[in-house]
Structures
1.
Amino acid sequence: MIVGLHHYLVVSALLFSLGLFGVLARRNLLVIYMSLELMLNAANLALVAFSRYNANLKGQVMVFFIITVAAAEVAVGLALIVALYRRRGTAHVEDLNSLRL
Amino acid sequence: MSELLPSALFYAFAGLALVFGFLCVANPLSRNPVTSAMFLVLTIVSLAGLYILLHAFFLAAIQILVYAGAVMVLFLFVIMLLNLEEEERRKIRGITLGLGALSVAVIAGILIRAVVAARPSAGTTPLVEGGIRNLGHTLFTLYLLPFEAMSLLLLVGMVGVILLSKKDLK
């Protein structure tokens, strides 16, 4: 059976759902962040597949930009988590339930 | 033979990515963040294999270098820095887990149903080659302004990280 666009899209949807489940179920801030990265990667896979099967490179350029933005986002987000940990002494979302620092 | 091998490789890499992704978010044996990070690295490497099958060679290299290299090393640094071992032993309530799994399963069902209903042109021979020459040409002609904006974004991110990691954060 020849592998087509819909195969890649189904894999992408399943990976996205796994990432979403991680965000919902896990309680550690860092693991939630990793699940977000998984969701971004699923979207990237869908974009590359669309790019390939529509004979159009724009999707791949988009993925290039997404990877760059994700790298910047990870750096800033992890700095925020470290700052929060220094202030509150925990990285567990159930302990971080007040807006006041 | 030339048709069979890419299909077999697709199923292998896709299966590996899904299994490793599951072990990353919901490992039944270990809730250590380091284990999750390692399985995320394996997921990213499997996705790079899928990119190669889609002839996106440059993106596969970038995926390994930036994601599996830089980003995951940053994650591991922070995990080691924060020393999160004592937080593993929290119990997760079953009802939240069940409701989360149910809602995620519904969303996955909607997505897959949409893919099946849309019937994307199955079996058409793909054309585009994501080599570094074509990608670089598109990037530096059509997308030059977003490319420069991205450099500004990285600069802002760098300044923000330095500011946030100061000891006396106001």
2.
Amino acid sequence: MNDLVDASPAPEVPVLDLSILDAGQRLRTGSLTATALLDAVLGRARQSEPAIHAYASLAEDAARAQAAVADEAFRAGQDLGPMQGIPVGVKDIFDVRDVPTRCGSRARDAVMPATDDATVVARLRRQGAVFTGKTVTQEFAAGVVSVPARNPWDPDRIPGGSSGGSAAAVAVGSCLVALGSDTGGSIRIPASVTGTVGLKPTYGLVSKRGVFPLSWSLDTVGPIGRTVEDAAMALGSMTGIDPLDPTTAADPDAAPALAGLDMGIEGVRIGVPRGFFAERVMPDVLAAFEACLPVLAGLGGEIVEADWADAAAARGVAMVLNRVESAAVHAASLDRDGHLYGPDLRERLVAGQSVGAVDYIRALRARVAVRESMARHVAAHRLHVLVTPTLPTTALLADDLVVRHDDGDEPVGSAYTRLCQPFNATGQPAISLPMGFDRNGLPFGLQIVGRPFDEAMVCRVGNAYERAAGWVGRRPPLLLRNSSHA
Amino acid sequence: MTMTDAAATPPGTDPPGTPDATSSTAMPSSAQSVVAADMAEMVASFAHLDAVDMPLTLPYRAAWADTEAGR
């Protein structure tokens, strides 16, 4: 795959290493224009796309028009918010006005362009964001491979999923931040294997209107960025009650994700649930995770051993709800267009169809039980957050999608979702950020899980760790081959 | 708006891994048995939480509101 990398000279793109905050400051002082920033991003896309395939489609003309509007607003002294002029990739399950939402499926090859923006896209558009294009998703967001996207750290490997294109685009710099969705880990998983930061918010914090559903009662929408600060800043521009999405919710007492980001973590109680979260985890991942704990303790965090007995049950609840609701989402179209669905998705839908109504009702009720169990667990240990590895392994080779354990093989779909899904059942906010690299240069992810609507604490702990650990800022070696600015 | 296809996929070709449009929706019965068994295992993982006096649903935050953690 490396041979496919464009060997032409790389454009001058140092601006791609700017945070959203720093880029915004330059945009506001006039030392950078949104158009120049977009040019840099599109230049990076031209360099990386032949090998990485992060985008299903680029929208260069529309993005240039949006950047021009953002620049005009800057010149007129209009400040639309922190995302003004910032290039944003959009997972191809979100409606973007005048663009088809193809969901990575042949079943939607002939779909008409969307007539309206998804609520979250509309919010970002009102704030002057620049949409670079639609990023590759696993078919209907149901899986973790994201064909044809590849991992920038090794293009022979997968970028994870289902928001794999979004994470890959952020990793290479072909957008500054991207939208993803997370039903069983689909923001955190690709963030973990691409060395980016993925923030799954509390269920209901961000509107899902205009986002193609996978599982109505589990779906969440959130950002993938290069840093915790970027992810928190993007999330702040996405949240809010949406009258058109009855599942949106808010805690009037909750602080924005950016609040207190730099306050440090002195006295913050950090739970470490081992047991389920340490089983069938690769030794190098466990070692990297264990190395995080003294870093957090050194920052003043209080490490608390806190096994959670219902983790496996929570995972089972999320799996059953996910499969059954997905089967319902696709029931009619599977009958009509099933021959256009990929085999992996069809298998998932058949799995959902195999679950009876009684077991689905049991899963709904058990979800209440696992949420109560987690609430008791957090209260009993007086925890602010929990930390786990995001995944039990690193990015797998695209032609070998099995994790090999001493006690048998595990398919990638099971392995990658295993440590993430419990927190889809509980609905808690969770972030994945880099916690090191293996001997092959592949990133590991640290998962930080918070109390409902406490994204601020999740980001605060993540930001403190990120700055202390120093993993942030690395670019994939793919780019170093061709650019002195990577 | 001008949409440009990603450079990865030349016109008229399928990206790697694209589903076979000619394949059937039907799964072999053996495969169906495997996925059904997987689902049964998942259902069994939370069977111990079943209690007849537990309501079908609660408002989302209710589970947290009555705890120190939820306030």
